[in-house]
Amino acid sequence: MLRLSLMVIDCDFGLNAALDFDKAQAAEASPFRSVAAAGPWTQLAHQPMAGTDVAGSARGSDAALGKTGEPPAAARSGAAKKVTLALLASFSALLYSQIQPPPSKIPGTPGGPPVTAPRTRLKDGRHLAYLESGVPKEKAKYKIIFVHGFDCCRYDVLNVSQGLLEELGIYLLSFDRPGYAESDAHPARTEKSVALDIAELADNLQLGPKFHLIGFSMGGEIMWSCLKYIPHRLAGVAILAPVGNYWWSGFPPDVFKEAWRVQFPQDQRAVWVAHHLPWLTHWWNTQKLFRGSSVKDGDPAMLSKEDRLKQVRQQGEHDSLHRDMMVGFGKWDWSPLEMENPFAGGQDEVKVYLWHGVEDLYVPVQLSRYISERLPWVIYHELPTAGHLFPVADGMPDAIVRSLLLGDE
């Protein structure tokens, strides 16, 4: 355990040093150093094995000993190698047990959480749990799918007033993203797969060829994937306080640095690990020596009520929270900053709205602000005094929905 602690302390020192690098440097720097070079391994390797009676061995076999009574160099070298291999094997086994996430608890299976929500089966066999509100979809003029954020579930849908739902004829659908609450985990999840899940969900529930989308926080980041992969299904999009990937190509170094420094230090470390060392994400956010993600640890007010918050993580944290981080901050093959307007030249006018609060300490506004400058087809609303949870403020849900469906006039 002493050696494991030494490795972790050295790891955190390297992480903090790497956080001061610019974007290019941060992408190349590694916080992990060689324990073997700096630790006590060499000394341990050359110490005699406990219980070895050198004198007794000398009396038993004069041919195997020199005049000094010591075993020959070949024997000492062989013993040292055995000790080193044993130590490395023990250390590797201990490290693997720490970084390997436990299996998810599959809803509706023995030992897994019960299924209480309606669910739809996708083509690959997974299930998505969902929640319907508003007017019946058969009578609806507008159909909206809401995509929840990090550490949330289908119940965290935008709280649109019943009066507005009925006035405009809105059918509102929310669902548990893969691995959350009662939706099956998707270990192969990517930024593309979630967009395709949304399109298949709409087909299974017979929402028609087009629908509106609203995504908040981590769900807001998913809106960029929907704009790239399923634009032909979209009637309009509202992106609320979206998480941004610091390693998307197109961010200038000064924007990267400014946004990076807004984050809490523990969030900087958690995001860095999720991007550069995704296989270590589970361990980093479950170990007790250093603080993991502040959002994962529950620092901000959560949208879910207390009796529902346990359900959010009931399958385990790895295929919900940790996979969110690995996908959201992982290595993408494309960048939203380089997107062309997917609706240019189309027959229908499709609008994309981006909302962000200046006082947001969990998802820095600088990234959204710069994206809006790069993408003139995105309508940007910056709220001067709002924080991350502005969508739950009085009157905001109705204002966001009216803007999406009727425009800003």
TrEMBL record:
Listed InterPro entries: AB_hydrolase_1 (IPR000073), AB_hydrolase_fold (IPR029058)
Key words of the record: Hydrolase
GO-annotated molecular function: hydrolase activity
Gene3D superfamilies reported in the protein's UniProt record: alpha/beta hydrolase
Domain AB hydrolase-1: 144-390
Keyword match Hydrolase: yes
Highest taxon of source: Eukaryota
Record-linked PANTHER family: AB HYDROLASE-1 DOMAIN-CONTAINING PROTEIN, HYDROLASE, ALPHA/BETA FOLD FAMILY PROTEIN, EXPRESSED-RELATED
Protein's name according to its UniProt entry: Alpha/beta-Hydrolases superfamily protein
Organism: Zea mays (Maize)
